[in-house]
Amino acid sequence: MRYLYLALAVWGTIHPMSWFIGWFNANSWDLMAMVDAWHANQATSGLVWDLTIAAVTLTVWVITESIRTRNWAGLIAIPATFGIGVSCGLPLYLFLRSRADT
């Protein structure tokens, strides 16, 4: 399972970033324009809030587990979650967490 988590983290980095970079190349590298695009309609706003709540929940879990287990490497998943997305942060954390079990 460990390497499946790593593969999912890599996919969760490359796939979304390819869409983000394509959007930035077509629309300038204006981060606020991207934030505006995220709220273009109710469907996209709902998705943004869904992912935001998932990211905050993941962050709380990562911090709680890292303090409990003293597995500080797991904290790397937090900037990955907010810098790339939950699609990277969650499988990355599961990969890093599984290291302690092996």
Question: What descriptive keywords fit this protein?
Answer:
globular, 102 residues, mainly alpha
* N-to-C series of helices and strands: HHHHH
How helical, in percent, are the residues? over 70%
Characterize the main sheet: none
Radius of gyration: 15 Å
Mean pLDDT: 93
How many helical stretches? 5
Note the quaternary state here. single chain
Q: List low-pLDDT spans.
A: none
Overall geometry comes to globular
Q: Strand tally, please?
A: 0
Task: State the separation between the terminal residues, measured CA to CA.
Answer: 11 Å
Give the amount of beta strand, in percent: under 5%
Structural class, please? mainly alpha
Offer a concise description of the structure.
By secondary structure, the protein is mostly helical. The chain is 83% helix and 0% strand.
What does this structure look like?
The chain has 102 residues and is an all-alpha fold. It has helices at residues 2-27, 31-38, 42-69, 77-83, 86-101. The radius of gyration is 15 Å and the shape is globular. It starts with a helix and ends with a helix. The model has no long low-confidence stretch (mean pLDDT 93).
Chain-wise SSE layout:
Blueprint: H1 2-27, H2 31-38, H3 42-69, H4 77-83, H5 86-101
Helix pairs in contact: 1-5, 3-4, 3-5, 4-5
